[in-house]
Amino acid sequence: MIDLRRIQGAPPLQQETAVLEKQNPKVEQPFAEVLEKAKGSSGELKFSAHALERMTQRGIGLTPLELEKVQSAVQKASDKGSRSSLVLLDERAFVVSVANRTVITAMDGDNMKDQMVTDIDSAVII
After folding, report:
1. What stretch of H or E contains 114?
2. 30 close to 22: Cβ distance less than 8 angstroms
3. What is the rounded distance in angstroms from the CA atom of residue 39 to the CA atom of residue 34?
4. CB neighbours (10 Å) of residue 47?
5. Which InterPro entries does its entry note (predicted)?
6. Domain spans of the chain, in order of start
7. I need a surface site. Which of 3, 76, 87, 95 has the fewest CB within 10 A?
8. Tens digit of each residue's pLDDT (9 = 90 or more) over 25-49
9. What is the Cα–Cα distance from 75 to 19, expressed in whole angstroms?
10. What would the mean pLDDT of 78-105 be, rounded to a whole number?
11. Domain 43-125 falls in which CATH fold?
């Protein structure tokens, strides 16, 4: 005899469905709450190991106010649908993964001369 419970794609029996619902109760969350968690509610900017290394080597620092400006620029790029952006702040440049809110690399004025930045889809000048 064929056991219908073992056939792939067969709908679960009523008894099995009731057991599954007891084991996995549904937790209702408002969509806005789920979306905010997915976006990263704090919006904090992260720095990759490579970016931190470059900033240390090149003596590039950010004050809290400047960091806030860069975060705001990344948010603007995100609002426009950007995935990877060049953020220019005074004599410094930051390549940022907008989706991950992560600074990938950093350059100062001396290191930007005669250089090409690739794989970006936007630039934000602060």
Report:
1. none
2. no
3. 9
4. 19
5. Flagellar_put
6. 4-37, 43-125
7. 3
8. 555 666 666 555 555 545 689 999 9
9. 45
10. 96
11. YaeB-like fold (3.30.2310)
> What would the mean pLDDT of 64-88 be, rounded to a whole number?
96
Q: What percent of the chain has pLDDT over 70?
A: 66
Q: Is 66 buried (19+), middle (13-18) or exposed (0-12) by CB count in 10 A? A: middle
| Mean of all residue pLDDT scores within the chain | 82
Please state, in angstroms and rounded to a whole number, the distance separating the CA atoms of residues 112 and 106.
10
Q: Which residues of 92-117 are buried (b: 16+ CB within 10 A; e: fewer)?
A: bbbbbbbeebebbbbbbeebeeeeee
71 versus 111: the higher-pLDDT residue is 71
